[in-house]
Design brief:
With 422 residues, this protein is an all-alpha fold. It has 25 helices and no strands. Helix 13 runs parallel beside helix 15, helix 14 packs parallel to helix 17 and helix 23 runs parallel beside helix 25. The protein starts with 26 loop residues before the first helix and ends with a helix.
Length: 422
């Protein structure tokens, strides 16, 4: 780029005497034309750092691995910022010079993959498509890499927004994600690849989404020849949670029916799922983000009857706490009357259990004042009769401290009211 261009003398070898300057040939005009051509050539060449656009300076920053995380992050962010505000001409130069031949390496890099995401999001469609084409060539390898998978997710998101600009690339990806084979099943339960399947559920619509849902539902609480189950897998359960999350956004009746069927199957199997290490998160997801119709079906028909037993399970106790938080005052009152306080033996089991004492403590916090008094009365009786073990004693202390704090807060409020009225 630092090439120095020189005007060379004529090499014709002629010995003829040059014509006088006052004749018809305009030598000054010829010289001007030559310098104009020279200037046009120089305009295409960045002579030195002082004259280079900020984007190019940013891309020439040192990104060597020996640099600190802070320095590499700063350089990466500068590239992203400069790319966003750069002219199309500079973007094209940078893509052809620094990106085009390094797409795979950049996709795998902790700091440079952000640049590809920015090009996909803000750059011309031809650059986006070239990046996606190159990544798709090695998708079986790159889909399991954390940074490359993020680039794919961004590409999928933008392709879904502008499908006409990337028809070939989008169709390739759809064909890939709709495969129903052993390799795809491994992607469903892979820590990284799973994220791309979730993004697909999020952005797909219509027949494309329906086909993916139909493939996935084979492996969600259904008998299948491979005995492959997503709901109990550490990462497979995240796909079920995503299906619960997208249910209210579905307007297509087919996809709405498929997602509803999956959620209802989870509710019907809630007793088993609440006691599994990963599957219990599916039940928690329904309680936290599910539709009211699903929450009521789950809590009124299944969880309330199972509350005592579920609370004493290592994983079920987490679900029991969520029931109390999201159940509402009427459900909590029913729970207290029908399951918890119905017998002293049930109450004693709960307060003395290493897992159940947590949801029972949460229940006390959410009960109204009258039911709290009943709760304290039973606790006092058990304490007086020495029926509390270590867990029960600790719970009793915590509840009494909670009562003391509530009384202090009430007195403070009364004091503030009196002072404000004076």
């Amino acid at each position: 780029m630092g090439e120095i261009l020189k005007c060379q003398p004529c090499q014709s070898g002629s010995t003829a005497t040059p014509p006088p300057l006052d004749l018809q040939y305009d030598w000054n005009k010829d010289e001007d034309d030559e310098f104009e051509k020279l200037n046009q050539q120089l305009n295409k060449v960045y002579l030195d750092d002082q004259h280079k656009p900020s984007l190019i300076q940013a891309f020439q920053a040192d990104m060597s691995s020996y640099l600190s995380h802070e320095k590499l992050t700063k350089n990466s962010r500068r590239m992203q910022t400069e790319y966003q505000i750069a002219s199309n001409k500079d973007r094209e130069y940078v893509f052809n010079t620094y990106i085009k031949n390094n797409i795979e390496q950049m996709a795998l890099d902790k700091y440079m993959h952000y640049i590809l995401e920015k090009v996909i999001e803000k750059g011309p469609s031809q650059f986006r498509n070239e990046i996606l084409d190159r990544i798709f060539q090695k998708i079986h390898k790159l889909i399991k890499d954390l940074y490359a998978c993020k680039v794919m997710q961004k590409g999928l998101e933008i392709m879904a927004q502008y499908p006409q600009e990337s028809q070939i690339q989008l169709q390739k990806y759809i064909s890939f994600i709709h495969q129903d084979n052993t390799k795809m099943k491994q992607f469903y339960i892979d820590r990284i690849a799973n994220q791309l399947i979730q993004k697909s559920l999020e952005v797909f619509e219509g027949d494309t989404l329906n086909k993916l849902l139909n493939i996935l539902q084979q492996f969600i609480l259904r008998e299948n020849p491979e005995k492959f189950e997503l709901s109990t897998d550490q990462y497979g359960c995240l796909l079920v949670n995503k299906i619960i999350d997208i249910y209210p956004k579905q307007f297509d009746q087919v996809s709405k029916q498929i997602t509803n069927d999956i959620i209802v199957r989870a509710i019907q199997n809630s007793s088993c799922l609440t006691r599994r290490q990963y599957a219990n998160y599916i039940i928690q997801q329904i309680l936290e983000k599910g539709q009211e119709v699903h929450k009521r079906l789950l809590m009124d028909n299944y969880l309330i009857k199972d509350f005592v037993s579920m609370s004493m399970d290592k994983y079920g106790s987490n679900v029991a706490e969520k029931c109390i938080i999201y159940g509402g005052p009427q459900w909590r009152k029913r729970l207290w009357e029908e399951e918890v306080s119905i017998s002293e033996s049930s109450f004693r089991k709960l307060v003395n259990d290493q897992f159940a004492n947590y949801p029972i403590q949460r229940l006390y916090e959410y009960l109204d004042q009258q039911l709290r008094m009943e709760f304290l009365s039973i606790m006092n009786k058990l304490s007086d009769q020495n029926f509390l073990n270590h867990h029960g004693i600790v719970l009793n202390i915590i509840i009494r401290l909670n009562c003391t704090q509530i009384c202090i807060n009430q007195l403070q409020c009364e004091k503030n009211d009196i002072e404000s009225s004076i």
